[in-house]
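re: ur question from earlier - yeah i can do the single chain one, its not a big deal. heres the input i used so u can compare w yours
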Amino acid sequence: MDGATHPGIKTGVVCGLISAVFYTFANIALRHSVAVDSFFVAAIKSAPAIFFLTPYLLVIKLSGRPIAVSRHLVPRFILVSVLGQIGGNGVFQMALGEIGLAATVPITLGALLIASAFVGRWMLGESVQRRTMVAITILIGAVVLLSQSGEPATVEGGGAWRPFLGAAYAMFSGVCFAVFSSMMRLSMQQGLQSATAMWINSAVGVVCLLMVTFYRTDMSELAALPVGLWYSMMLAGFFNLVAFIAIATAMRVLPIVAVHLLNASQVAMAATAGVVLFSEPLTHSLIAGILMTMGGLLVLASRRPAKTT
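and the output i got, formated as tokens:
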């Protein structure tokens, strides 16, 4: 996972697309779990990463290799993981419960794209080229169209303000994800291994999100959850782990905005899943948004790679 071989640009692009596919699978499982407390769902989603990564890190430790080359980076990464887990994953699940899959994913990714362009420039010193800005503009237009194509997922007691609240949740989640992913990339550039970063982020998620859950929720409600919901939450965690590994690999070789633009193909996937699996409306704005998303990705893909010596 942290081998000496540095992945190339093509590997980064492939991993960015793989992350989009598996994040879509995770989001479908999360959409099935909207009846459960949002922060508990996010906590269970973080658990599989701990289960799979702990043996891997133990093997590395027992072999004499360090699992944290730059230990001074760990406290800072723990803090940003709290933001990514509570403000990102927890609030994202709240948005799913308010406005559904087809609206939540594009709004979140739109906010992430905008925020990551500014955060990446400020935190990582990455330039945003003209072609990338054109791609962002097209994709933001697609986000606007797609966000108008969904219906609130919560039908009982849903006033006119619920879609606006759900959209606000999704936008806040996207900003938190942008800050977290930029800090993760910076930490890995400074010596924190990706596997260690994933483990820390997941452990922080389980602890912090369970604390929020215990504060908000009656434990008897969680004990009465049907088995199918537990399967959905655990599958979301497994899919999220695969996507997380893929996007971490992509971040090693691609600018942060390029990674998120590739990952923005989730918009079309989520819209399709919303229509096919959850009977969300197939509207003209949905179709136009998907086409604009593909157009934005084509603009990004047509960028000429920088020459290396």
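The chain has one domain: 9-301. not sure if urs matches, ping me
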